[in-house]
């Protein structure tokens, strides 16, 4: 099988896995626990020099960065343009913008994981949690506005941009309340109901279970305070 995805469950590589399932192309999945013992081996660092996921191998090409992988998969494996919006499509650049906006949304979440999961409680920085919650809230404001009366980010319907941003919104639900963002809440539910999303979840544990027990209460994204 030419396509090979290196993945750790419920990390950014879930974007690539979910998209591969949406596309229905055959691929080989290499799943690693989200631990340095697996991600930092000399063998894996030959594939990803930083020892991160995702990494996609297609024949003799290796591609890093979930946004680039999404663009590549759409260009190479989506001949009917169900997931992609090709060059010349009126939504091409909005599509690219949202694919990459997915990272703007996940970075505050990543910083919160660092605080809650990888920082001993006595060294946790309340100000970091406050600022990152607020930054995440501003991203949710933008998604709420974009959704308007629509179901997905682009007027033409579901695309790989929803996979990218959708993973971030899925993850964000562990940290913030969506009470002030009802369209984002409905969007998250809609995305999570997709069979391809469900197939991209780990089969052996509940959603986000690997870190939820370590978190504090969800926060209000406007005030940064626990709710
Ligand atoms: N911008 C990259 C970020 C990749 C990344 O940082 N992945 C995280 C998982 S969400 C990772 O592998 N972290 C492991 C580590 O930093 O040790 C992408 O979108 O693919």
State Rg.
17 Å
The name of the CATH architecture of the largest domain is Up-down Bundle
Bound molecules: glutathione
Strand element count? 4
Strands of the largest sheet, in order across it?
2-1-3-4
Q: Based on CA inertia axes, which overall geometry fits?
A: globular
- According to CATH, the fold-level topology of the largest domain is Glutathione S-transferase Yfyf (Class Pi), Chain A, domain 2
N-to-C span: 48 Å
Q: Report the structural category.
A: alpha+beta
What sequence of helices (H) and strands (E) makes up the elements?
Answer: EHEHHEEHHHHHH
How would you sum up the major sheet? 4 strands, mixed
Write up this protein.
The chain has a four-stranded mixed beta sheet, covered by helices on one side. Helix 1 links the parallel strand 1 and strand 2. The chain folds into two domains: 3-77, Glutaredoxin (3-Layer(aba) Sandwich); 92-214, Glutathione S-transferase Yfyf (Class Pi), Chain A, domain 2 (Up-down Bundle), CATH 1.20.1050.10. The chain is 49% helix and 7% strand. The radius of gyration is 17 Å and the shape is globular. The protein has nine helices and four strands, in the order βαβααββαααααα. It has helices at residues 13-23, 36-39, 42-47, 66-77, 92-117, 126-147, 160-172, 182-192, 195-200, and strands at residues 3-7, 28-31, 55-58, 61-64. Bound molecules: glutathione. Glutathione binds at residues 11-12, 39, 51-54, 65-67, 103.
């Amino acid at each position: 099988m030419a396509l090979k995805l290196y993945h750790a469950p419920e990390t950014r590589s879930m974007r690539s896995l979910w998209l591969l399932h949406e596309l229905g192309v055959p691929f080989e999945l290499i799943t690693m626990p989200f631990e340095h013992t697996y991600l930092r081996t000399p063998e894996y660092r030959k594939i990803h020099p930083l020892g991160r996921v995702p990494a996609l191998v297609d024949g003799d090409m290796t591609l890093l960065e979930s946004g680039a992988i999404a663009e590549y998969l759409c260009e190479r494996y989506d001949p009917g343009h169900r997931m992609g919006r090709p060059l010349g499509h009126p939504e091409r650049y909005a599509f690219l913008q949202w694919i990459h906006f997915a990272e703007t949304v996940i970075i505050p979440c990543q910083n919160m994981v660092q605080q809650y999961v990888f920082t001993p409680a006595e060294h946790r920085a309340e100000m970091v949690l406050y600022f990152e919650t607020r930054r995440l809230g501003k991203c949710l404001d933008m998604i709420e506005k974009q959704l308007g009366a629509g179901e997905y980010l682009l007027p033409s319907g579901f695309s790989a941009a929803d996979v990218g941003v959708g993973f971030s919104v899925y993850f964000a639900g562990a940290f913030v309340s969506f009470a002030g963002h009802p369209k984002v809440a409905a969007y998250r539910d809609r995305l999570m109901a997709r069979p391809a999303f469900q197939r991209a979840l780990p089969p052996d544990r509940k959603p986000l279970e690997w870190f939820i027990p370590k978190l504090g209460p969800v926060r209000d994204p406007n005030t940064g305070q626990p709710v």
